[in-house]
Amino acid sequence: MTYANFSDHKLDKFPNCSWERDFKQRTPPIYKNLCLISVVFAFSVGLTIGILIPFMYFNGYNGVRKNSSSLSSEVNTSSVIRTIFLNNSYGYVNDSKSLLIYPTVSFVETNESNQSTDDEFIQDGIYWSPKVEKSLPEGYKDQKHTLWSDYLNKAVAIRLENGCGRMQNRLVTFRDGIKGCVRYRQNTDQIQGELFSFYLAQILRLPNLAPSAVNIVDLNSPLWSNLHNEIASAQWNSNRPIVLTQFISNLNSANIPAVFKPLERHLNKFDVANMTKNEILDKEDVLRNMVELAQWSDLIIFDYLTANLDRIVNNLYNYQWNVNIMDAPAHNLAKKSDSELLVFLDNESGLLHGYRLLKKYEIYHSILLDNLCVFRRQTADIIKKLKTKGNIGSLLRDMFEKRNSATVKDILPTLPDKSVKILNERIDRVYGQIKKCESIFSKAL
Predict the structure, then answer these.
(1) CB 256 within 8 A of CB 330
(2) Residues 152, 244: contact at Cβ < 8 Å?
(3) For residues 190 and 256, is the Cβ–Cβ distance under 8 A?
(4) Where are the transmembrane segments (predicted)?
């Protein structure tokens, strides 16, 4: 049978489709209305459910975000960054003063254990104890900075060679054998960043930055008169500002502590309590770890204030492509082998260049600060004072005016008003973090 014959056969079997006509004639109108109503009802229910479910989900999601870290409200960040870093923060509900514990952290459960930890390593819930403070290495304090500046006023350089980092930096040797590192940059703001970051560290009383001073490349001065050929080889221009830093020997690389890596990435009194339970480490090793973490607490605050791009932010940013980078030595951070002092190197991106890139990198600057709840009391007190007085700009500019010659001040600008404004905002942010930690951990059992 052909397809044509098959079609004809079907039509012959049901001539004029009389069965359909008979069905319609025998169906009462009420059933037609009920069918129509049921279809409209089913459509309405489906549409309502389809709208409500996504609405309820996103509304709940936004509610959770309001009670979590404020990082995501400051900048628009990718889901990759949130997944890698933000999900591991310690949680809390500040309104009720209750503590939401993540399962990756085991907390001390008894009051007796908490009291012991609070006495030995932590005081008042958020501060390093006097025992830790007394064990900190001396580092570089005001007297050593003054001695270095006075020395450079009379120093005579006899050799200039490659060293002290990248590009046009040089290692300089003076007539008496003392050495220094010269930071030369084409961009003046990088010299400003290095210098004013150094001044800020002194205001914060951080002993972790080597003595530094600004100088001018002047071939007629006693300092540079013996180095005409070396300076030409280095492609330095005359009358350019440089930062001359005391050379530090016996430096080793410094790694990022486990508590600041993505799987943990928070430090509070309970984390410190857990570290004291390590049966493998003896008391001296535990104390040594606390001393290092106390310096890291200062580093986190310092790098947040300056928006330093060339240290931990470098590791955090590259983590999205290289998951092993957090196990590598921290960039521009070293440890003295003879004193356990952490040395904060290369701060040229601070306060100017780093501030211009805040929109892109603020998420990384905030990651560690938002999860730091143990501080040196001295550092916290200075932050509170700077917050109250709002005078950080005048302090930095006064230091610049008093410590530098008229020649330096003619060539090198002071810190711009825009940078001072941003720095004050970041001081407020650090102050807020300290107060937040006080509200959570000072009274937490």
Answers:
(1) yes
(2) yes
(3) no
(4) 34-58
